[in-house]
């Protein structure tokens, strides 16, 4: 139980449910970074809602003491949209995997980004289906042999950052589970950002697609003089980068959907059935 | 000679004013104090194709389209040929001799009026042809032009140049009927007391009722014949501090609705069959997470894309059984426009109180037809608010607390101590998902027994018709009026018939229905689908023999069709059983 006056610490955000992930799973770092970001921002637990879909990573709401929704496969973004529009003052985070956000839920992603609702969306990308045990995901590399692609993946992988930038996300960043400090900072920045924030997290699956040593050698920081207001540059980088760049790629301001929809009318009043029905006379 | 009612049908090219002509006449009649009941059908195309509009206007309560057509207005040759066989004996044909050449028919009265030429040559205002027809109908059948004039003044208040031309068109048509022709038909409306009636469509009533029930969040995806609900909510909710949003698809729409309801708002979506199919995955989530949500399904003829602008009552199975797994749901079907206003409020009340999806079934005929009604009595409205946890309960909050009724207090974001995760996984009282086997044994009966409370809230099933009936008619949804009219006709002709019309299909008022079925010798279930979905549902619960009457022509029943079946069953009483169509 969290009282309003006391300073909140990481442990206030932990629920009494123990994570079910495999040892070494990248999602542990995402969970810790979430605790830390929420504590850094001193957000009261009852004012935070974590919405997920289905998959290993989507179990995350159970491990936090905040409000949460463990929704349907692919439907975290629509549910979070409803939560945020009904409670514009709450902090709403969408957390899910590459399958949830870019396969079964891919139809919702560009719309959530283009609406610029004030949501912070975290994609825990392990480039594999873990919960169903090692089938290809929309971000699995071309040629990779998985249980469902015994002859190798044929499809060009979906590029989550390119998708987010192209659809109109107003905050786009990338983190890596092996860099927990950066992750917590990105989450806090994403939450603070007014509008649709997307944070792509390389979050390896130790069981079925252990890419830690690969990414340890590959990941690199954005150039020191990176201009995060330059959309064209960000798009170019998303298309051409050979090594994954970590940090805040892009940030801009646009009207935020929840604010717009709640200010369409200057004055609102209660419903009066008799007055309303006059139009049918 | 005066008549209690007239059935007028207008037919012609879609987009050429058939519908607007009918609408003005209808509204004028209702403002004068007459009862009206309209039906419209139109092609799926925006322009062109064949459209027709029918209004039954009466000095008494008219509850269906009626039988046949008393007055046929043919805007073009196709309109004439498609409907001429439906004109009742002694009926009237109104046509433009420049476009229609009718066949010799001594059993009807024909009035040629060159409304196209009059509009073009006399008025130099071609678009006035529809208003000329409206004025002509008013003059011919005794409708005062003042109420029509008021409507036209309202419509063109901001276009003075068009207002003058339209008023001139109205009176040109009116005087043509009253001064230029000799009236040879028997139809003249009995004067009525001037009571202003509301005229609204089923979709208007659904949106208005939802707002009255406290709906403050709506998300939807455009689909015929439900789109008007999305349009109305998008216009009205911002004024009430609510939110309405057009989603990217129906899965998103219902997801947003579930999310907003989790957030504490009464929430609704509206769709048709194809959309309901897409929303099905969420019905199970909503039921197991016990999140109140209302889903309006305005049924149209399926399967698949089917006949998008035509009527069918064929989504009942889907509403009752759709979705994987075993879960309770409320299913409600309204019988008329007025009923829709009150029943959508019931849908919210039951969904909020028993925390499960409420599927509200309308259909193309109910959603798009207009009916007159007196202004609904607001004191009849009871609005249920969801059960909130007390301060004491929040100290050790259990979202899925096992209670006698099955319903548990719901917290919402912002409520300290109330945090929980709404799960699609089987869960315990706290919403934890780590002991599914034990939880399932407790939670299945907890969720299902909420239906027992809901059925008690419904009260007694009203019965219409003869007390000592030998034939019973059981219907559901938009056919209520036409069934009762057929039953009244049968009783007037010496048969003994009664009807019941359950509005809540799940949970069903089984005891009342059993009593009714056992009190009669024969049961007829008329419904607008091929296979008899409601008949099968009742049989599966009560086991009685049922005579089915199924129509799948994309059009409503006429009272005559149901009356004919009653006569048939009365005379073939011995051939009982599950006859099929």
Describe this protein's structure.
- In chain A, strand 5 (171-176), helix 6 (180-192) and strand 6 form a beta-alpha-beta unit.
- Chain A has helices at residues 26-40, 76-86, 98-104, 109-115, 160-167, 180-192, 212-218, 231-240, 257-261, 273-277, and strands at residues 48-52, 67-70, 91-97, 120-125, 171-176, 197-202, 220-221, 245-251.
- Chain A contains 10 helices and 8 strands.
- Chain A has a single domain, classed as Thiamin diphosphate (ThDP)-binding fold, Pyr/PP domains (Rossmann fold, 3-Layer(aba) Sandwich).
- Chain A is of the alpha/beta class and 281 residues long.
- The mean pLDDT of chain A is 96.
- Chain A has an 8-stranded mixed sheet with strand order 2-1-3-4-6-5-8-7, sandwiched between helices.
- Chain B is globular.
- Chain B folds into 4 domains: 5-196, Pyruvate-ferredoxin oxidoreductase, PFOR, domain III (Pyruvate-ferredoxin Oxidoreductase, domain 3), CATH 3.40.920.10; 200-380, Rossmann fold; 391-455, no CATH class; 463-571, Rossmann fold, CATH 3.40.50.
- Chain B has 20 helices and 21 strands.
- Helices cover 39% and strands 19% of the residues of chain B.
- Chain B is an alpha/beta fold.
- The two termini of chain B are 41 Å apart.
- In chain B, the strands form 4 sheets. Chain B has a 7-stranded mixed sheet with strand order 9-8-10-11-13-12-19, with helices on both faces. A 6-stranded mixed sheet of chain B has the order 2-3-1-4-5-6, with helices on both faces. Chain B has a 5-stranded mixed sheet with strand order 16-18-17-20-21, sandwiched between helices.
